[in-house]
Write a structure and sequence with these properties.
heterodimer; A: alpha+beta; seven-stranded mixed β-sheet; two-stranded antiparallel sheet; 9 strands; B: about 160 residues; mainly beta; globular
Chain lengths: ~200, ~160
């Protein structure tokens, strides 16, 4: 009886110590990451790993050193995406020689349908200086999160669409956000912002 | 139904002359003004269809469906823009065309969604299709294809 009781006590204490340790570890972890408020959480943009329209791996590093305009969309989008690509084509041309000093990157929010091959074909209708990017669902989810992009799949079957952010993210040569260009922003204002990104 | 075919012939003539002119199509009390669409990027799987549908009659009608000769799918969609986020979804139960009123189908609101495009749409061509209404029935229309970034129908030859 007493031996059994002792054994039960030992087990109970062991379990209790285990639980307390686990709580302690959790508390310490949450204080460690949340308490310090790491600067990463306030940034827009950052590291990513994707592939371009040629199927070649690309990262943020490939676009540093030049201002970069990033925007997010998908080829099954009837209006906003071709319109933004058309506008960016027009803006690059309007900048003249300065157009060569920019990267423009169209990142799909629909990696299931937007293969590198389809993106390459799609880009043929726009300025050749524009890059398109896709990736695995996890890679796309990661870059969407880092850019604070809203993208939500709507509907099932083959004809689903996405609700998505339409702004163009204008980053400087160091990869930091300069400003956003709104959807269909007047030409002169968009060009002024792009010129600002060149000098910031 | 002689008027639509006459207009169709006129549109065809315009195409043969080298430019797609937007045209009007009539069916009963409905007038479909200037159906148009845009040139598509290469490989694009979808396109949007636009027009102004006017109802001169005393009874409301509703657009319930249709077809587009260069796509396998056709649906009626609505696009809304809020806080920089574009949302799009099908219009359920048809789109009402009020009596003595009109509904505008354009890129920023109600529009037709052509899915499963079978080919690239080129500027200055016309592409046939139909619109199906609850009361007026099936109407043949021709969509004038504008530029890739067009904001409205093109009226004059270029």
């Amino acid at each position: 009886m007493t031996v059994q009781a002792n054994r039960l006590q030992v087990i109970a204490v062991t379990v209790l110590v285990g639980i307390l340790c686990a709580i302690g570890v959790l508390l310490w972890q949450s204080m460690g990451s949340g308490g310090r408020g790491s600067p990463q959480t306030s940034l827009i943009g950052g590291e990513f790993t994707l592939v371009n329209q040629d199927g070649k791996p690309i990262t943020q590093a490939d676009f540093l050193g030049k201002p970069t305009a990033y925007f997010f969309g998908y080829t099954n989008c009837p209006d906003a995406c071709p319109t933004t690509l058309t506008d960016m084509t027009d803006r690059l041309k309007a900048l003249g020689p300065d157009g060569d000093k920019f990267n423009v990157v169209f990142i799909t929010v629909d990696p299931a349908r937007d293969t590198p091959q389809l993106l390459k074909t799609y880009l043929e209708s726009f300025d050749p200086r524009i890059t398109a990017a896709t990736g695995t669902p996890a890679e796309i989810a990661d870059v969407i999160k880092k850019f604070r992009v809203y993208a939500k799949k709507v509907g099932d079957g083959d004809n689903y669409t996405f609700d998505h952010s339409t702004a163009v993210y204008l980053m400087d040569a160091r990869g930091e956000l300069v400003t956003l260009i709104d959807y269909q922003e007047p030409r002169d204002e968009a060009l002024a912002k792009m010129r600002r990104a060149l000098t910031s | 139904m002689h008027i639509p075919s006459l207009l169709g012939a006129a549109a065809l003539t315009a195409t043969l002359a080298g430019s797609a002119l937007a045209a009007d199509f009539k069916a009963g009390n409905l007038v479909i003004h200037d159906p148009w669409t845009r040139a598509t990027p290469r490989g694009a799987p979808v396109a949007g269809g636009y027009a102004v549908i006017e109802n001169t009659g005393d009874q409301p009608d509703s657009l319930t469906g249709g077809s587009f000769s260069a796509s396998s799918g056709f649906s009626i969609h609505q696009m809304t823009m809020k806080d920089g986020v574009m949302s799009m979804g099908p219009v359920e139960g048809g789109l009402e065309i009020p009596a003595h009123g009109s509904v505008k189908l354009d890129p920023s609101g109600f529009h037709l969604m052509f899915t499963g495009l079978t080919r690239q749409l080129k500027r200055h061509e016309t592409v046939g299709g139909t619109l199906v209404f609850k009361n007026a029935g099936t109407v043949s229309v021709d969509y004038a294809v504008g530029s890739i970034g067009a904001r409205g129908p093109e009226h004059s030859g270029h």
